[in-house]
Amino acid sequence: MVIGCIQVKLSIPEARSLKDKRMILRSLKDRMMNKMNISVAEVGDQDLWQSCHLAAVTVAAEKAVVEKRLSEVSEHIRGNPRVVVLDIMVEMI
């Protein structure tokens, strides 16, 4: 069993309030969870309206499957024009 975690620090330049931020993040998280076999949560900067730390986790029997899913998550986030990726960290357990 392999567990993969990707942590992403994001900037959300168009957010003008926490409500804007949550709307953008909800859309991003819902699309990722529906499209890929992962769990996503906001793990930091909950009270800052233009900054966010997201974590996505997946589990599989093979390392290659986990690496592919995390790569898809990274590509999906980087492809979203509403957020700017500041930092990405990937961990395998």
Describe the model.
The chain has 93 residues and is an alpha+beta fold. It has one domain: 2-Layer Sandwich (Alpha-Beta Plaits), CATH 3.30.70. It has 2 helices and 4 strands, in the order βαββαβ. It has helices at residues 18-35, 63-78; strands spanning 2-11, 39-44, 51-60, 84-92. Strands 2-3-1-4 form a 4-stranded antiparallel sheet, covered by helices on one side. The longest helix has 18 residues, at 18-35. It is elongated. The N and C termini lie close together (9 Å). 22% of the residues are buried.
In total, the number of domains comes to: 1
Main sheet, how many strands, which sense, barrel? 4 strands, antiparallel
Spatial gap, N to C terminus: 9 Å
- CATH architecture classification: 2-Layer Sandwich
Order of helices and strands: EHEEHE
What is the overall number of helices? 2
Q: Which CATH first-tier class would you pick?
A: Alpha Beta
Which percent band covers the strand fraction? Answer: 35-45%
**CATH H level, superfamily name:** TT1725-like
Fraction in helix? 25-40%
Average pLDDT across residues?
93
- CATH topology name: Alpha-Beta Plaits
Report the strand count: 4
The low-confidence runs, each spanning 5 or more residues with pLDDT under 50, are none
Q: Give the strand line-up of the largest sheet.
A: 2-3-1-4
| Shape verdict | elongated
Rg from Cα: 13 Å
